[in-house]
Write a structure and sequence with these properties.
Elements lengths: L3 H14 L5 H16 L9 H16 L3 H7 L5 H13 L20 H5 L14
Length: 130
Amino acid sequence: MMSNTEILKRISSISEHDARFKKEAYLFILVALEYTLSKLETRRHLTGQELSRGIAEFAREQYGCMAKLVLERWGIASTNDFGEIVYLLIEHGLLSKTEEDSKEDFSDVYSFDEEFGWHTFTISDIPDRL
């Protein structure tokens, strides 16, 4: 098992060589993966679509209506970017994949505007006191 220090070193190296995404984006994807796996009865490999849905749920839980803005601030603008990040993490030994996996599994899983837009909230989501 890799130490947290080694994980952070590898992520720093990735973000230095590929400036599309901030370090926080890589860390967020790793934490969102653990979050998604924790929701399963039995830990198993996730598909790109399953991970993309788990990332959305985790982002909404962490950042609420600011989720889209936070992700975009880190360079993530679509589920395709999740795939780019995951495959960079695979390339650098932080994640693994199966023969059936491909980067295209993350392609257009959902629209960020639809997934994180205001219309996904209802009046009952607004607290009585602001």
